[in-house]
Design a protein that fits this description.
single chain; 327 residues; mainly alpha; three-stranded parallel β-sheet; two-stranded parallel sheet; 15 helices; 7% strand; elongated; binds adenosine-5'-diphosphate; binds tryptophan
């Protein structure tokens, strides 16, 4: 049996790139026989870059609502807020004392931020970010951690820190986790053709009200081929996004229309918009239901998850306290 664990920073609402690149694959993995999945919202990590409390609350809810709307099974699996399980921060302190400074100095994600913003603009939370991440993982004896390529180094650091503790106190303190990086998952393009990302502000939020969603889709970049002329579907962003969501038959039909000419990008965008609304109709409805003010469901799910998470986390913390001499 594999215990799968992953965390999502609450630094924005999930977009189409997150959903196709991370959320759906993780839900599929959690459904495989024998797998048990632990999914938490890394709200403490988000404090390293986001200070607005109302925004954080909104993002935390939107992330939870997205996972539930896409069918994450909370009977079999667990979803919770990192900040509500204090064992995360307790373990992070213990691990800090086993983390060599040069390891953190060498973290690419930290070095990139310092390079971009200057040392005065980064905080100590960003510096020790990988240690809290190691605590998140080791607390649950996770075997498999599905993450994006950019997280490979953080997983190596987690294994190094865990090994240092195991070496000191015995090999059975922590399970050494493995990263699961799916190289096959393609990079979903944003409305400007670059990787869809909240940091490039080129993302599609599929939960927007229909008219706003259409407005975003209409902004997708296209070239200036006149309406009458044939168009190359393979270089067009609208077509690429359509192909990610449509059936083979639908894709073949749209390809024909592009190649025949007399079919404009505006038409294609309308098709894409309509496909999104249709394909995600159930998820959009469920998301809005869960996000509606006064609906206690989301909070209830997160609290139930907290209890399940704490049961596992407190057992690990007891083990750690015992070997380190705190109990
Ligand atoms: P963002 O770039 O919007 O800040 P994150 O870095 O928070 O997104 O990514 C969260 C997860 O979603 C990661 O697992 C990442 O690999 C996946 N992801 C993000 N953007 C894309 C994309 N454009 N295509 C495929 N997967 C993506
Ligand atoms: N650092 C991860 C990211 O930015 C989020 C994260 C925090 C995480 N703790 C984790 C991912 C533990 C996997 C396991 O995407």
């Amino acid at each position: 049996m594999s215990r799968i664990l992953t965390g999502i920073q609450s630094s924005g609402r999930p977009h189409l790139g997150n959903i196709l690149g991370a959320i759906l694959p993780a839900i599929n993995l959690s459904k495989e026989a024998g797998n048990e999945s632990f999914l938490f919202i890394a709200d403490l990590h988000s404090l390293t870059t986001l200070r607005d409390g109302d925004a954080r609350r909104e993002y935390v809810r939107a992330i939870a609502a997205t996972w539930l709307a896409f069918g994450y099974d909370t009977v079999k699996n667990t979803i919770w807020r990192q900040s509500r399980v204090p064992e995360h921060t307790e373990l992070a302190w213990y691990l800090n004392c086993f983390t060599p400074m040069p390891m953190l100095d060498n973290a690419t994600s930290f070095k990139d931020k310092v390079e971009k913003l200057g040392k005065a603009a980064v905080n100590a939370g960003l510096f020790t970010y990988p240690v809290l991440q190691a605590a998140d993982i080791l607390l649950y004896d996770a075997n498999l951690v599905p993450v994006g390529k950019d997280q490979r180094q953080h997983l190596e650091m987690t294994r190094d820190i865990a090994s240092a503790v195991n070496h000191q106190y015995g090999e059975d303190v922590f399970v050494l986790p493995e990263a699961r990086i799916d190289e096959r998952i393609m990079t979903i393009p944003g409305i400007d053709g670059a990787k869809m990302s909240k940091s490039y502000n080129n993302y599609i939020d599929i939960f927007l009200p229909a008219n706003e969603l259409y407005k975003v889709v209409k902004k997708i970049l296209s070239d200036s081929t006149p309406l009458d002329e044939p168009k190359n579907p393979d270089t067009d962003i609208t077509f690429q996004l359509y192909a990610l969501l449509a059936t083979d038959e639908q894709v073949a039909q749209l390809r024909q229309r592009y190649e025949a000419g007399g079919y404009g990008y505006g038409h294609a965008k309308k098709e894409l918009y309509e496909l999104m609304v249709e394909r995600f109709a159930n998820e959009r409805e469920r998301f809005n239901e869960l996000m509606a003010e006064g609906n206690p469901e989301l909070e209830r799910e997160l609290r139930a998850g907290e209890e399940k998470a704490r049961a596992v986390a407190s057992a690990t913390i007891s083990r750690v306290r015992r070997v380190m001499g705190f109990s």
